Amino acid sequence: MAAGSLDLPVVDLASPDLQSAAEAVRKACVDSGFFYVTNHGIQDELLAAVFGESKKFFELPLEEKMLLHRNSAHRGYTAPYDEKLDASSEFQGDLKESFYIGTVRDVDMQNDPNQWPPEECFPSWKDTMKLFHAAALAASKRIISLIARSLELDAEFFSNIGALDCPSAALRLLHYPVNESDNGNYGASDHSDYGMITLLATDGTPGLQIRREKDEDWKDVHHSEGALIVNIGDLLERWTNCIFRSTRHRVVSVGKERYSAAYFLDPNPDLVVQCLESCCCEAYPPSFPPIKAGDYLKERLSATYK
Question: Quick check: 42 and 128 in contact, CB under 8 A?
Answer without folding.
Answer: no
